[in-house]
Amino acid sequence: MKLKEVLLKKIEEQRPRTTRLVKEFGNVEVGKVTIEQVIGGARDVKCLVTDISYLDPQEGIRFRGKNIPETIEALPKVPGRDYPYVEGFFWFLMTGEVPTMKETLEVVEEFKKRRPLPQYVIDVLRAMPRDTHPMTMFSAGILAMQRESVFVKRYNEGMKKTEHWEPMFEDVLNLLPKLTGLAAYIYRMKYKGDVHIPSNPDLDYGGDFANQMGFPQPYDDVARMYFILHSDHESGNVSAHTTHLVASALSDAYYSLSAGINGLAGPLHGLANQEVLSWMMKFQQKLGGQEPTPELVEKALWDTLNAGQVIPGYGHAVLRKTDPRYMAQRDFCMKNLPDYPLFKVINMVFEVAPGVLTKHGKTKNPWPNVDAQSGVIQWYYGLTEWDFYTVLFGIGRAFGVLANITWDRALGYAIERPKSLTTAMLEEAAGIKK
Ligand code: CMX
To answer: Would you say the CB of residue 269 lies under 6 angstroms from ligand 1?
Structure first.
């Protein structure tokens, strides 16, 4: 497979750079750590490495050096559609090189072969109570497939550390194509009368997802856009970091991704996209048919803050401006659903919330993040079951985190083990007298 050949070449180029940094420059300092950071979630502590994406606080995300519009522009597009093949994007994340159409189509075919979901995964899903959250089902489905791990098999047979990336890559290639079928099965079992639509071997990743979910075009492009936008946000966010942390114990891709998905399911992280929609619906209910106005939005925002709750979809641990992933989705809405009432309310919140949050004075970033805009697009195209929204985030995020853990293995990154201190030790460091 050409992708594997290119990847091996890239790995061989990269390995000496990493080895040299550790051997010759291991003592060079790249930052310091304050008590606020120790207690405050290691914010901004520089202790992770990835070349797959970089998040600048002002500019936002760059995948392999390209911002979102550049990425979408550069990659081979599905014929007649506006968005690129997700499979080509995977090649790009893995290698840093933009694939040709031929190279992209090779990945498309490879993914198709690996799509079928084992029956036992379906049995596991069906055994769960139907009101189980879709993220729990999604994570359980991934974990159930752990028995397939090629990495585990090869590890048990005995394998050199330099070979670890190869079966990890194989696991990743097996896992990614199954996620759309897994997600669609959960969706249709829970919300569409348990009536299922088979995968269509003529379709690419985004196209087949739309097909299995039961949504017509342009939902295929919505899916491609979503998966690309949500894929990677460097390594420190909860889902990426969890996946990396679990993989660092040489746990396989199934264990690692399932764990990362569990982190994504938290309301401060990926679940915020469902929270945004639920906030909007409660707001509209309270309006009871009244036209929303900026004043009414402002009041609702203050009510949330005064109740001691966060405004979902706003704020970020790293970003200090409007998330370009928000803007990319906003541009999509401006083009495709400019007059949609829910989009208008979302825009009103965008106009009002930064001022309210600034006045409130707590958050370091009053601007919207990716989750503020994503639900409205789903709603418009008929996916109104908002507790499913984080699963969509999860499929996209899998591309980034699985590319990362393949590289973790390739570069032989160490098992993670930061150091703890006691409160008394911090007090001593602060010079507090007892
Ligand atoms: N509404 C109200 N208060 C907020 C806020 C928001 N949207 N964002 C931050 N704050 C508060 C924090 O809760 C914190 O308060 P305390 O000092 O009482 O704990 C204070 O402002 C400082 O927080 P911060 O340094 O600006 O932000 P953090 O790095 O701690 O947290 C995040 C980042 C995203 C968890 C936070 O902004 C938040 O809770 N936002 C709402 C949930 C959300 O949209 N999450 C999705 C993020 C994107 C993603 O991962 O999917």
So the answer is: yes
